[in-house]
Structure formats: C-alpha cells, structure tokens
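Reader question, answered in our methods column.
A reader sent in the components of a multi-part assembly and asked whether the whole thing could be modeled at once rather than chain by chain. We filled in our standard form and ran it. Here is what they sent:
COMPLEX SIZE: two components
ENTRIES:
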Amino acid sequence: MRLTARQMAARVAQDIPDGSYVNLGIGLPTLVADVVPPDREVVYHSENGILGMGPAPAPGTGDPELINAGKQLVTLLPGGAYFHHTDAFVMMRGGHIDITVLGAFQVSARGDLANWATDDPTVPPAVGGAMDLAVGARRVLVMTTHTTKDGRPKLVTSCTYPLTAAGVVDRVYTDLAVLDVTPDGFLVQELVAGTTPAELQARTDAPLRFADELAVLGEEP
Amino acid sequence: MIDKRVASTAEAVAGITDGATVLVGGFGNSGIPVELVHALLDLGVRDLTVVTNNAGSGETDIAALIRERRVRKIICSYPRSSGSVWFEKLWRAGEIELELVPQGTLSERMRAAGAGLGGFFTPTGADTPLADGKEVRVIGGRRHVFEEPLHGDVALIKADRADRWGNLVYHSAARNFGPVMATAAKLTVAQVRAFVELGELDPEAVVTPGIFVDRVVVA
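And here is the structure of the entire assembly that came back:
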C-alpha cells in the first residue's frame, strides 16, 4: 500500500505538539492544518506577515488582501497578528518557528534539501521564502512522495538538483515510510504494511538503515 | 507646515526618471500599489530596475510595466506565479534581466539600506547557487553569505490611511513589504484608501512613521 496525501498529512500532524508555531509550505504540506487534532492549539505563520492564520473563508466572503504564501484567501483567528515582511522573516530565519513542513524534489542522506529549482532552463527560477524557512525553522519536516511520478527515487545519496539548504532536514514523511535523518544517514522508523525493507531500499537511492523496532506506518499506534 | 498629501497619482510619481530603481510593495495581488504603478506607466519612464516580490500577473500594474518594455531588470524572489505571462515571455526572449533573491534576504537587504548598514551575513542561501560569487564566512559553526544593502530611488507602496505628516497604518496582510520599502528609498510614495486628520491615527498603532514617507495620495 501507499498512503494517500491526507494519510501522510495525518501522520505529520501527529508530530506537531500542542502550542507549536508552525509554517506549512505551499502544496502538499498545507493539508496538515486540516488534520491536526482539534485539542491541539497550533499557531500557523505565513511569510507575508500573518500569525494565527485560519482556514479559507466561506466562498464569496473574505478579505482579498488576506492571503497565504500560496496566494489563496485565508482568515485570521482570534489572537492573530499582522506584521511586516522583515519581521515575518525574523521569525523564520531567527529560529522562532518551531516546525516547518516542506515539500521536496530531493532529500539527501545528509539532510540536504532541494525543493526550489529543477534543471529545466525554460522555466524562470523562483525561490520565495523556501531557503529562509529551511535554514531557520527549529525542526524541518519534509512531506513528499517516496518517488517521482516516473518512479525515480527522491531520497538520494547526494542531491542533483540545486540545494535549498544543506544539512537541515530532520525527518521525512513519504507515502511509504517515516525516516529520520541521522549522522549516519536515513534511519527508517516506520514502514507501510506490505512493503519489505528490501523493497523500500529498491525505491531509495541512498542506503537505508532500519530501526530495531520498526513500526507499521498507517496503523494506529 | 508639513503636508505630504498630493492631489493625484500623476503628481505622486512626478520626478521619477529613466533608469530609476523602483521598490514596489505587494505580495501576490495583496498590497500592490496598482494606481501608482499605472501612473508610473503613464509617466513613460523606461530602463527601470524594479524590486518587488513577484514579477506581475495578468495585464495590469507590474505586468503592464514589463509588457511595455519599461523594465530592464527585476529583482525579486518568486517570478513564477501563475499569470506571470509577460515576465516569462520577455525572460525567455532574453529581454529582461532577473536577479533572484531569497525572500527574507530581499526584505533584509532593504532593511539594511534603510538602516544605514553596509550589508549582513545570513545563513540563507549558503551552499546554494544563489550564493555564487558571494563572500562566505563561518559564524558560530555555520556558513553565512554576505549580502549587500538594496537601495531604491523610489518606493511605491500601499497603505490604508495616512495623515498629512505621512504617518501610515495598513490593512491586514497588504502591509507586507510596505514598511521596509518605505525606509529604503530616497523618495517614498504611499497610496492610501483615505486621509485622516493629524492626531486621528492612534500613535500606538502607527506602523510607518511619517519620517519615512515623502508623498501620500488617495487612490
């Protein structure tokens, strides 16, 4: 089996403690906000100057200037605050954000992250706030499919795409496994049912080590 | 008497010349000083360097400046938004120069300019192609990249209300780059929804003090 995007988000959400200040990257990671258990108070940050960001407004309502990093309409929760861009990045670069969840093109066994540029020369490069977030958040979680659409590994010995930041990723959540980045490379903590360690290794470029008590990903703990 | 209010957007952008570096506030479509950018377009100046987060979208404001070949170079963090058709077209044709800057570095370079600093070392961008050719120093065991200040000749920003001294308050996430750009340019122009009397803005709530603002216009 492979986890759905929502199941992956739910697994990431388990690791977001009550009281965390969190920045969710554009794309897949934004799903995490929908599945964080309601008994946890989590404050979402947006790079364009929002803390306490809430969900999208009802269709046809909302403030057209109140958008998230993906330029989608959002709301502000009670207790939320606005601030200017420099302060938004003070929070990011200065280590004030507890957790960020980012997408990835590639993650290396050293925790290098590549998620902003491919080698396609026909597309203008665009980086946004990805580099600041990757170097600054206290804990960098990556949420990504284990392989690309055409089956190539995303967890690699060394990134071939341009880096976003070197040695920053703490943990990777894929549709097949949960892996910690350790000084000795990837350590698989959880693996989906029906996939053997050898099969996971075959879909991974970097050498894998497996935890002694390997948990089953996707089953309730 | 100090009175920074001007009557029209044309008056607000008067004096901007060919070759100017123009800081333009906004993030996506939030906080873009659309009417001021259109006044700049009407002014007819060209060979501009535009500093802004995105590279315009659709056919209005920054996209229109690019379409009309007024922009020689754009300094931004994310020129690949959906609808950035004119930027992409000219970029592929080699008709516009792009300096890509990480978003936090973009705002901090303007902060350094406004604060009178000669630059700063940041871990952002270390070991990436965006650090190519830049000085790298290990500080606290971590690699940092030296970034220079980014000054503007002009800043065009959008706020919610202003008084005649140029004190500004903003509206929700439209604040974004406005406050830092206001500090970093020789001439700062703010378009606002409304003017208020001096003393009407709560001094505890003023975000940009008027010292950073030269002209305000309702648009």
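What stands out: The mean pLDDT of chain A is 96. Chain A has five helices and 13 strands.
Send us your own complexes using the same form.
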